[in-house]
Write a structure and sequence with these properties.
Elements: E1 5-10, H1 12-16, H2 20-29, E2 33-40, H3 44-50, H4 60-67, E3 72-78, H5 82-90, H6 103-107, E4 116-118, H7 122-132
Helix pairs in contact: 3-4
The protein binds uridine-5'-diphosphate (UDP) and magnesium ion.
Uridine-5'-diphosphate binds near residues 59, 93 and 120.
Length: about 140
Amino acid sequence: MATNRTFTMIKPDAFADGNSGAILKMIEEAGFKIKAMKTVRLTAEQAGKFYAVHKERPFYNDLCRYMSSGPIIAAILEKENAVADFRKLIGATNPANAEPGTIRKLFAKSIEANAIHGSDSDENAEIESRFFFSKLEEI
Ligand code: UDP
Ligand code: MG
């Protein structure tokens, strides 16, 4: 996948609270183009696969339960310097440490229910995009 793309999920807390529209507006206003998007509900097993890198972490089981607790929006975004710029837009994992004006500062409830996901590298952006979208070559 091109280096100008990243992958995001609007997480169950933000989706359930009706914050998806406001979050997508912030994303578009920051210059990201939505290349693909869908609403899905993960099983705990699928959430476990997505976050397999965190398998040994103490928060893993709770995270899988939380990420399968309700629908999410998964999307592929395009912009120059997408991965780094998007991480900046969403803010720190723990909303207590997130910069003012970031999506997590505005919408996250806790370090777990932190409203949104953003890939941390070009490589992971591609892996995560393929997890949700099968025909990546056509997107
Ligand atoms: N998480 C958690 N407790 C922690 C750290 C992370 O519940 O102490 C959750 C949180 O939802 C986070 C996700 O696990 O977004 C993945 O963690 P990571 O360290 O990759 O943070 P991110 O890349 O999402 O900022
Ligand atoms: Mg991460």
